[in-house]
Amino acid sequence: MPELPEVEVVRRGLAAHVVGRPVREAEFLHPRVTRRHVAGPADALARSTGVVVADAVRRGKYLWMPLADASGTASDALLVHLGMSGQLLVEGDDAPDEKHLRARWRFADDGPQLRFVDQRTFGGVSVVPLVPVADGGPGGRGEHPEASWGAFLPASVAHIARDPLDPSFDDAGFARRLRQRTTGLKRALLDQTLVSGVGNIYADEALWRAQLHYARPTKTLPAAAALQVLSALRDVMAAALEAGGTSFDSLYVDVNGASGYFDRSLAAYGREDRPCPRCGTPIRRDAFMNRSSFSCPRCQPRPRNAHL
C-alpha cells in the first residue's frame, strides 16, 4: 500500500501536469472503479466533466483534486483511492491503452490524458463534496500539499489526522495523545486518526532510527521519546521523497511511470537476516497484524512489558 511519500510524489506530478486544465470527457472503464461513489457511475461522470482541475491535494495517504465550476468555485473533489496497485498516469492521446486501464480523463486543451490504471482493482475514484472542518483544513501551501480552498476537506477524509510533514502539525498534541494510548507503539503510529500517512514501511524505518521496539507500550514513553519518534518519521519521509518514494515493484510509480528508489536506503524494512546498518546484528522479522515488522534485536530490544 503506498504511504505518504509515494502519494506525495503522485500529487506533485498531478500539480505539474493536470492542475488548471478543464475536463472535456471522463470515462470509467470497469464497474469497480466507481464502487465507492454512492450515486453511481453516471453521477460521477456528470460531476467530473465540464469542470477544471483546480488543485491536487493530499492529507496523509489520501489524495484528491478539487473540481471548479465556471465561477471558479470548487464544491466537489475527485477523490482517488490508489489501493494496492492504483496508478495515476499522464499519457499522450496516441499512447496505447494500458492492460489494466480503469478510468480516463481527456482535457479541453487536447493535451495529455490522465489515466487511472489498477491491476488488482482495489482502488477507485469518487466525486465527493468538500466540507468545512474544525481543524482548519489542510492548511498553507509550499512543500506540503495544502489546498488554497480554505478550511475544506472531502467529507470522507475529515476524520483523518494531519501528517508529520504538515506545517500545522501539533507536535506537543501528538506526543500527549500518543502517550495516552494503551497499545503498542507501532499500532499507534498506524492509526490514521492519530497521525496520517504512516504505513508499515515508514513505521519500521522510523522506529529503527529512534531505536525503539514496535511493541513498546505507548504509556511508558517519555514525552522526549514520543517527539523523537516524530522527528524520525519526518526524517525518513523527507529522505524517501527525495528518492521518489519506495518502489518494490512496477506498481509504485509517479505520473510519468518512473519508479522511486528509496528501497535501496531501507535500514530495517524487508531486510530480514541482513546486518543492521548501525550495529551489524541480523535484522529480525516478526509477525504483526497480519503483516510483518522488521527491527534490530540489539538496537531495538523487546521490552519486558511488550504490548503486542
Model description:
The chain has helices at residues 4-17, 41-47, 171-180, 185-189, 200-210, 223-242; strands at 23-28, 52-53, 57-59, 62-68, 74-81, 86-91, 101-107, 113-118, 124-132, 152-154, 284-288, 291-295. The chain is α+β, with helices and mostly antiparallel strands. It has two domains: 4-157, N-terminal domain of MutM-like DNA repair proteins; 171-295, Helicase, Ruva Protein, domain 3 (Orthogonal Bundle), CATH 1.10.8. The strands form three sheets. Strands 2, 3, 4, 5, 9 and 10 form a six-stranded antiparallel β-sheet that branches. The chain has a four-stranded antiparallel β-sheet with strand order 1-7-8-6, covered by helices on one side. Strand 4 and strand 5 (74-81) form a beta hairpin. Helix 1 (4-17) crosses helix 6, helix 3 crosses helix 6 (223-242) and helix 5 (200-210) packs across helix 6 (223-242). It is globular, with a radius of gyration of 20 Å. The model is unreliable at 139-147 (pLDDT under 50).
Key features?
Helicase, Ruva Protein, domain 3; 308 residues; 22% strand; 12 strands; globular; four-stranded antiparallel beta sheet; alpha+beta; N-terminal domain of MutM-like DNA repair proteins
Summarize the structure.
The chain has helices spanning 4-17, 41-47, 171-180, 185-189, 200-210, 223-242, and strands spanning 23-28, 52-53, 57-59, 62-68, 74-81, 86-91, 101-107, 113-118, 124-132, 152-154, 284-288, 291-295. It is an alpha+beta fold. A hairpin with a 5-residue loop joins β7 and β8.
